[in-house]
Amino acid sequence: GNRSTNAAQAVNAGMDMELPWALNYSVLETITGAGLPITDAVLNTSVTRVLAQKIRFKVNAVSGAIGLKAKDPATTYSGGSVSNDAHVALALESAVKSITLLKNANNTLPIKGQSKGGTITSVAVIGANLPYRITSADPGGGMINWVSNVRTGDWGSSRALSDPAKSVGPLAGIMAAAGTGITVTTGATAAAVGSAQFVVVVAGLTPQDEGEEYTGSGDRASFALDAKGTAGTQNNLITSVAALGKPMVVVLQGGSVIDMPWLAQVPAVVMAWYPGMVGGKALGQLLFGDANFSGKLPITWGSSLAQYPTFNAGATTTMEYDLGYRRFDRMNTVPLYPFGHGLSYTTFQYSNLQVPCSTVTKNGVVNVTVDVTNTGTVAGDEVVMLFVSYPGSTKRRPIKELKGFYRVNLGAGVGKRITIPLRVADLKFYDMAANAWAVETGMVKISVGPNAATLPLTDTMMVQ
Question: How far is Cα 116 from Cα 175, in angstroms, rounded to an integer?
Answer without folding.
Answer: 16
